[in-house]
Amino acid sequence: FGVPASVMMAILSGTFLIHGIVPGPDMLLPDAKGGHLSLTYSFVWINVISNIITVIVCFLFLNQLVRITYIRGSLLIPYIILLVYLGAFAEKNTFEDLYLVIFFGILGWILTKLEWPRPPLILGLVLGGLSENRLFLSVDNYGLSWLLRPGVLVIAALTVIGAVYPMIRAKKKREKKFPREALKEEREKGLSFTWGAAFSLALVIIFALALWESRDFDLRAGLFPWVIGTPVLIFSLVQFIREITGRAKKPYEEQPLDVGPEVPPEVANRRTLEILAWIIGYFLMIWLLGFVIGGTLAAFIQLKFAYKEKWPISIILPLFAFAVMYFGFDRILHVPFPPGAIFEWLKI
């Protein structure tokens, strides 16, 4: 099966070796032939049963879980920020993943402001590794002839239809709702370099540089960058042209309406800067003092001085977070939290 792809896979492989089980093709052989197929199937059934149990438990406690929405946001935000950082670190036990939290947080905010959809980015991050692996397997086993297999052609046709049909329907709906002359007049106001155009141009530059750097790769190394980078570069260039020509701008009546109470722009910007400052503040506290001490201290400061909570709440909630991180993650799960830069400098 090759080199473990993650920390959890390495731990699982070590557990197998301790019990005298060598991970590899024998995991797919029947027990009668010296394999461990029953063990492999037990993992499959554990996943199935655990998901069923999870659904049942969620349904049983659904009414209680709904009550979480009635809790003040000021009490949840510190825990949410801590859990995000804990989850990012615990995945690979590397502190550098916390930089990715800040990066993708800022990227998500930019996409929101520019009205770019976020689900495709999430799908790309989740399915990117799987797609690359399956692409290599398909090319190694079938060459490029796998593109002509019936199943692939059907999936490709459904993908094209699913992408093109909504665009055609939206265009017809827009032309029916708005006169063609009005749309033409709106889009003939000249070129305009907006923030959306700047973002699209940045994508064009990034993927153009990526393709240029991969120009000397052999087929196996450059296959996935070429397959992904080329269409993304084309689509980004098309979107950039639509942005500067005004074709990406929706008519005023077509803009989505806010269903909630209207928030003044200055208030929204102030709240955004505040939460961004706290996200960076948590990162700095964790970097300087470590997860256990830094995260607890940051939660206390936020609750007491930012949200003006009472002393009992400002003390009890951070102490609960401290107990979870220290006893749950550090002592029980043995997560290797970094000690903190200050303790390393002082050699404590």
Could you explain the architecture of this structure?
- It is a single chain.
- With 348 residues, the chain is an all-alpha fold.
- The chain folds into three domains: 7-63; 78-116 and 264-348, no CATH class; 119-250, no CATH class.
- 73% of the residues lie in helices and 0% in strands.
- The protein is built from 13 helices and no strands.
- The chain has helices spanning 7-18, 37-60, 62-66, 73-92, 97-113, 119-142, 150-177, 180-187, 195-213, 219-245, 265-306, 311-332, 341-346.
- Helix 4 (73-92) crosses helix 5 (97-113).
- The longest helix has 42 residues, at 265-306.
- Residues 252-259 have low confidence and may be disordered.
Strand % is: under 5%
Class inferred from helices and paired strands? mainly alpha
Multimeric organization: single chain
Largest beta-sheet characterization? none
The succession of helices and strands, N to C, reads HHHHHHHHHHHHH
- For the CA atoms, what is the radius of gyration? 26 Å
Terminus-to-terminus distance: 42 Å
Number of strands: 0
Return the domain count.
3
Percent helix, as a range, is over 70%
Total helices: the number is 13
Write down the overall mean pLDDT.
86
Overall form: globular
Unreliable stretches (pLDDT < 50, length at least 5) are: 252-259
